[in-house]
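Let us work through a complete example step by step.
Step 1: write down the sequence.
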Amino acid sequence: MTKNSEFKKRNKKYIKLMNKDKSLRELTRKWFITTSKYEYSYHFTWLGRPIIQYPQDMIAIQEIIWKVRPDLIIETGIAHGGSIILSASILELIGKGEVLGIDIDIREHNRIEIERHPMYKRITMIQGSSIDSGVIEKVYKFAKSKSRVLVFLDSNHSHEHVLKEMQLYSPLVKKNCYMVIFDTADEDLPESAFKNRSWGKGNNPKIAVLEFLKTNDRFEVDKEIENKLLITECPGGYLKCIK
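Step 2: predict the structure and record it as tokens.
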């Protein structure tokens, strides 16, 4: 057995043991709920742009991109641009690929900063609802010649919207590629966390994922990812295309 295979075997062993540790999982759950009060995911940047994600999920995303080496990454929800810049920067290291970002409202100050960023050369942005028929037509046209596509869904987090996104974008994702649904952890947060939002417990991305998987057998939850992360905004949301 090589040193590399020994290292991987040891990692798998401890990840398995870690997930059997009920006290650790409960501690993780409490930590996540407590830190959400302080908008923990808002405190980080990627190459200078705010990225509203947990660092653990940033690591998982770069692992997926590096492994899949996609021709195209489609992201719904742009905000300050940190996420699309993260994707573009990994593609830049790989040496190929484009990012297509979609947002219903790309604010001018964010657009300016994104467009002046060095990674913008791999980015195209579309303003409009991610489920609008006109936007979908543009997305499919953009993806037409791309064989390996990743989809990251992080826009409106209501059950109805996310389910519609999954139904519309999933056909673009082929075997061994991923569709990642962010903020499935919303189902685990208290109602007080959803002030001034149209989604909450029982109406969020996790509920959409559960409904989607009942009728779509092309995808399954990649438990290995969230098992090693423990802390993630996307429990049950790392979906791998298996057929």
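Step 3: interpret the result. The chain has a mean pLDDT of 95.
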